Amino acid sequence: MTQHTTQPISGQKPGTSGLRKKVKVFQQANYLENFVQSIFNAQPNCAGERLVVGGDGRYFNREAIQTIIAMAVANGFGELIIGQGGILSTPAASCVIRKYPSCGGIVLSASHNPGGPDEDFGIKFNGSNGGPATESMTEVIYQETLSITEYLKADIEPINLDLTGESKRGNTVIRVIDSVADYVELMRSLFDFDAMRALITGGEFKLCFDAMHAVTGPYAKEILVNQLGASQSSVINAEPKEDFGGHHPDPNLVHAAELVDRVKTQGLDFGAASDGDGDRNMVLGRNFYINPCDSLALLAAQSSHIPAYAEGLAGVARSMPTSRALDRVAAKLKLDCYETPTGWKFFGNLMDDARITFCGEESFGTGSSHVREKDGLWAVLCWLNILASSGQTAADLMRAHWAEYGRDYFTRHDYEGVDADAAAEMLNELRGKLETLAGTSFAGIEVAQADEFSYTDPVDATVSKGQGLRILFVNGGRVVLRLSGTGTSGATLRVYYDQFEPASGKLEQNPQEALQPLIRAADALVGITAKTGRNAPDVIT
Ligand code: G1P
Ligand code: ZN
Fold this sequence. Notes:
By secondary structure, the chain is an alpha/beta fold.
C-alpha cells in the first residue's frame, strides 16, 4: 500500500533554515512523512526528475533517509542521488544538486545544534539552484502541512546506504554516490592546490582543522591530508558521530575549545573548525581570533589571490546584523554591496542573477557563488590560498586590513532559553518607540536613526518584513535586536553590536571593552538586563 491517510500536525513552520525540532518530535507517527509529502506537493513539476538526499550524519539521519527514499519512489521521482552512508555536507549537497541537474534536494541537518536521541534534528528543501528554498517556497510548503490528508510511501526493501552504486525501486533509479568526490573536484577547480601544498608541506607552517565529530571529517581528510599533504594529526575529531561526541558542533571560541587550546599550546599558524553540516567556519591565526565579519571583508579584499576570483567579484552581500566591514571593501573596490535579512536563502537570488560573488553572515557563515550555501571548508581554503600566495600570516593580513580600512568592532550577545512572551514583549515595546528615538540619548550616546529592517529582493521584488530592530547612533555605533529562528526550545534573543574605529584610532582593543559604551546604551534603552532577568548573555561571539 502506498497511499496513507494522515492529518495536519501543527508546528511544521520552517524557521531561518528549514524545520528543526527535537528528534522525539520527528519520531512521532507521520511527522516526517507529513513534512516530506508537503515538500513534494509544493513541487508539482518534479515527476520523473532527479532529487538529491543527504545529511550531516546525526542521530535519525539514516532512518529518515530510508523514509524519504520510499516516499520519493511513491511520488514518482526518476532518480535519487544519495550520499554514501547518508552523508552530504550542506555545501556538498548544493554542489551535487547543481552538478547533476535536479529538481532539488533534501538536506537533513540541524546544523550546529547538538545531536542524539534527545537532541535536535532538521530537514530542509533546496531548490534546483542548490540553495535553500526561498521564503515564498517555504510558505507554500508550510501551507501544504496545514491541509495535508494523505502521503505516498512505497513498501520497498531498504537501500544499503554504505555501498556506492546504482539500484532500482519501482521506477526510480537510486544512486548512492561518494559523498566527497564531487565537492573535492569543485574545490580543485577554484583554488591553487599547488601553492597551498607547498605552504603546508614546506616545513614551517603548522595547521589544525577541527571537524568536531561532524560531517566535514571525511572532506577535510581528503582535501587537507590526501591532497594538500597535511599530517594525519592535523585534522582532529575527524570521524562523524551521531551525537557529535556529545558536543555542540558549533565552531566558535566556546565550543571549539580543543582547537583553540591546540593553536595556543602548540603555537600553530592556522586553526579552523566547521559545524555539524559543514557550512560554518571559524578561522584562527597564531594567537589571533578572526571575527567572521572581518574574515568576510578580508577574503573579499584579497580575493584576487585565488584563481577562481582573480578577475574580480561581481558584487558582495552580507546579512543585516553582520558588521559593515565588507561595505568598506566594496566601496574601495567599487563593488555593489547588498544588505539582506538573516539566513542564506536571501543570497541565492542575488547569485543566480550574477549580482554577487561573495557573501556572508556574522554567524560564522561565508560563501561564494560556487554553490548556493555557505561553505565552511571553502572559506578555510580561501584563507590557505591567500596565506600561500601572499606569504603573510593571518594576523599580519588582518592587521594590515584594519590599518587600511579601519576596524569594525563587533560582538553578538545571545540570551538563550528566555521566556518567549517576555522577549516578544520587550521587542514590541522597543518597536513602538522606534520612531521617537532619533535625537534622544542613552548612557551618553545619541541615537541618529532607528527602524525595523525590511528587505525588498532586488531580483523578484519579494518583500520580507520584520527582519530585526536596529538602532544607529551618531557616533557610528549600531545595535540590532532580533529573535532567533533556528532554536528548538524557548526563545533566543540575539543582540548585535558594532562600532567603527578609524584606521588612525585604537585598532587592538578587546571587542568587549571597545563595545562597552554601546552595550550600556542599549541596556539603558531596551532594558535587556531587567527584562530578561539575566545579568549576562549566555553566549558571546
Ligand atoms: C542562525 C544565524 C543565521 C544563520 C542561521 C543558519 O539563525 O544567526 O545567521 O543563517 O542560524 O545557520 P537564527 O537562529 O539567528 O535565526
Ligand atoms: Zn550549519
